[in-house]
Amino acid sequence: MIVLEYCNVVKGSHLTQQEALTSYIQHLLPKLRFQPTLLSLTQSDCDKLTSQSLMALLPKLHVNCHTARSIIFGGEKYGGLALPNPYITQGVDKLRLFLGHLRIQDRTGQLIFIDMSYIQLLLGIGTLFFNKDETQFKWGEMGWLQSLWSFTTRYTLKFLYPKGWVPSKSRSQDQYLMEVFQQHRPSVADMKALNCCRLYLNVLTISDITTAEGRTIDHNIKKGQKLADRESTLLWPTQGKPSPKDWQEWKQHLGWLEHKGKLMFL
Fold first, then answer.
1. What is the C-alpha radius of gyration for the chain, rounded to an integer number of angstroms?
2. Does residue 140 contact residue 146 with C-beta atoms inside 8 Å?
3. Contacts of 146 (CB under 8 A, 6+ apart)
């Protein structure tokens, strides 16, 4: 609504180049920065948000509307107009909000920490997820932290957060199931199905699904039944019973684990 109002006003105005540029930087962008920081906007969402405003603004700056956005947002030293990029702006604002609350550990910081731990368990990996390539985890849920993760991946940012929780391995040569499954290069839909089964069974690593000696997969796991003698102490996300199709995918990948010798001799 804000963008549409701005476009209607600018298109029908007699603003000079400098006035049009000022209206964009000092009037529209501050309005656009307020809410996106708290939203989960993707690069595509931000592009859609700003495309209309640029179509109204650029003619006032005597610039072709179809000029490459790399020139519009590029730095002056590279021959660009150096207009603020809304996606980068909202990403930096999110990063400041994220780091600020984690540092002072207020209530919001504690909630962020809880959400990070939840995502870590949801993904089932042993490395802080912010230091992984987000594009390899499209089968996960989408939310505020995931949108920040997408931004940090795009600009290759890395995090050092010793207090961050990651699941531990039960045995020295253990491996995380979801990381091993990814080696088989399943589709996003298959990874979602596998993760549903994993969450339902409350398992993280290969040792969670094998017999005591670590050489074979427990027959109850193959049948989609939780192991009564290995109740997890973690607080797991609520996961309904997977569909027969999901269990079929699960059994196929367990067969792949056994066939390829992916089980550890623990």
1. 24
2. yes
3. 40, 119, 134, 140
Closest CA to 207 of 223, 221, 228, 196: 221
Which residues on adjacent β-strands are paired with residue 205?
176
Say if residues 138 and 132 touch (Cβ distance below 8 Å): no
pLDDT tens figures, 111-152: 999 999 999 999 999 999 999 999 999 888 888 999 999 999
* pTM over the 0.90 mark: no
Interhelix angle for 43-57 vs 86-104, to 10°?
130
Helix, strand, coil shares of the chain, percent, nearest 5, are: 60, 0, 40
CA 28, CA 53: separation in Å to the nearest integer? 9
Q: Does residue 43 or residue 192 have the better pLDDT?
A: 192
Cα angle at 156 between 151 and 161, to 5 degrees?
Answer: 85
What digits encode the pLDDT tens for the residues 191-210?
A: 999 999 999 999 999 989 98
| Cα distance between residue 76 and residue 91, in whole Å | 21
125, 178 Cβ separation under 8 angstroms: yes
Strands (E), the chain: none
Taking every pair of C-alpha atoms in the chain, what is the biggest distance, in angstroms?
80
The one-character DSSP state at 128 is -
- Asked whether the predicted pLDDT for residue 174 surpasses 70, the reply is yes
Q: Which of 116, 166, 165, 121 is nearest to 143 (CA)?
A: 116
Confidence of residue 260 (pLDDT cuts 50, 70, 90): low
Which residue type sits at 151?
F
Task: Give CA–CA dist 266/257, Å, rounded.
Answer: 15
Beta carbons of 250 and 197 less than 8 angstroms apart: yes
